[in-house]
Amino acid sequence: MPYKLIMAISLVFLLTPVNGEAGEYRCDNRYDIIISPKGSDDAAMICTATTMALEFLARYDLHPKRTITFQIVEKSILSEGYDAFGSYDMHSEVINLMAYQAIFESVQHPEMYGEPFDRVHYSGAIAHEVAHAVMHHNLMSRHISQAPQEYLAHATQLAVLPENRRKTIIKAMDIGPWESGDAISDIYMGLEPGKFAVKSYLHLTTMAQPKNFIRILLKSNWFYVYVP
């Protein structure tokens, strides 16, 4: 995910070793979440943000089928031709995530949705990649294009932010949800990532029957998705 496409949370989850394997930890909650390497300073925040993302996605009957695995790295990640803070690899099923402090060592004045990047947005970026993973676990097609993936990832990213921060972003973008006949495309996302995110969040959370639209996303393999 590009830098500009990319929530301090005070809840702390205890961490326990995974099956005795050195270097890995599992979040101490009802979800199977693994973080590597052992001792990551960001582990508690990753556990919390991932749990919030999974609970949001569960509203739409989207549940993880396998372990959610994080690999924490110190350098930016090449994803879709861009340097990124995080990226989900569909082949290894691993979320590569930059350590929080490493982001500031790599990028001068990083931003997200037109705001200075901080721990609030770091948690949002975590949720974004978790949505990619869960979507992959639930695909109804062998291939899925970028637009439907990013629709759900950005909607989840905004959903886990504190309400006041989310409202501020929505107000700043000054745009409404996707409407019937609109084409949700990766071109629009590339040009207006913040507006793409807001339109997707507002559309998903205000639909009368969102699960039907989720099914459309899960089997979409075009470069765009038309809104019914």
Overall SS class: alpha+beta
Main CATH class of the largest domain: Alpha Beta
Number of strands: 12
Low-confidence stretches: 1-20
Order of helices and strands: EEEHEEEEEHEEHHHEHHHE
Q: What's the end-to-end separation, in Å?
A: 27 Å
Shape: globular
What is the CATH architecture assignment of the largest domain? 3-Layer(aba) Sandwich
User: What is the percentage of strand-forming residues?
Assistant: 15-25%
The main sheet comes to: 6 strands, mixed
- Structural domains: how many: 2
Number of helices: 8
> How much helix, percentage-wise, in residues?
40-55%
* Annotated CATH topology of the largest domain: Glutaredoxin
Descriptors:
single chain, about 230 residues, alpha+beta, Glutaredoxin, 2 domains, 6-stranded mixed beta sheet, 8 helices
How would you describe this protein?
The protein has helices at 43-58, 100-106, 119-137, 146-159, 163-173, 186-191, 193-206, 210-218; strands at 15-17, 25-27, 33-36, 68-73, 77-79, 82-84, 86-89, 94-98, 111-112, 115-116, 183-185, 224-226. By secondary structure, it is of the alpha+beta class. The chain folds into two domains: 15-137, Glutaredoxin; 146-226, no CATH class. It has a six-stranded mixed beta sheet with strand order 1-2-3-4-8-7. Strand 5 (77-79) and strand 6 (82-84) form a beta hairpin. Helix 3 (119-137) crosses helix 4.
Provide a brief overview of the structure:
With 228 residues, the chain is of the alpha+beta class. It has helices at 43-58, 100-106, 119-137, 146-159, 163-173, 186-191, 193-206, 210-218; strands at 15-17, 25-27, 33-36, 68-73, 77-79, 82-84, 86-89, 94-98, 111-112, 115-116, 183-185, 224-226.
